[in-house]
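Private note to self, pasted from the team thread so I don't lose it. Backbone tokens:
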């Protein structure tokens, strides 16, 4: 998933389903201190544990927070450079696709297929299939 995401130095990255903070920390390592990584997690206890884990890395450009019920991702002006989703959606969530900035990429499992979503310079999106996988379900309110 990280290879498909192609995280550049200085990128603004959203980590959906951040859990323990493991992927948030990996993404922060890839962006370097010029970047910014936000991990979001629905389970409050898991988010608290993950936030502490990320804080212990010493990478102050990465944080993990509990997401509000009914909010998928974290909308941001101009979108995100990269979005990593670590839970399987039942269908491609338009809400997350809309959060991918121009030139950005999102890697997301949909049902049992790993998809790469790219936002093209003209604003259109392109989806490519990267094989079959199994993930925990993404809860979409």
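Design output:
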């Amino acid at each position: 998933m990280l290879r498909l995401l192609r995280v550049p130095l200085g990128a603004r990255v959203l980590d959906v389903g951040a859990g323990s903070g493991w992927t948030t920390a990996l993404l922060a390592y890839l962006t370097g201190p010029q970047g910014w990584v936000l991990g979001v997690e629905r389970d409050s206890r898991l988010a608290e544990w993950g936030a502490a884990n990320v804080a212990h890395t010493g990478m102050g450009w990465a944080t993990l927070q509990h997401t509000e019920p009914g909010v998928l991702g974290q909308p941001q002006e101009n979108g995100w450079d990269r979005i990593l989703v670590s839970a399987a959606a039942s269908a491609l969530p338009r809400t997350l696709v809309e959060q991918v900035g121009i030139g950005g990429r999102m890697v997301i499992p949909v049902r049992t297929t790993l998809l790469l979503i790219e936002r093209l310079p003209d604003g259109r999106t392109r989806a490519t299939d990267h094989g079959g996988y199994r993930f925990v379900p993404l809860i979409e309110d």
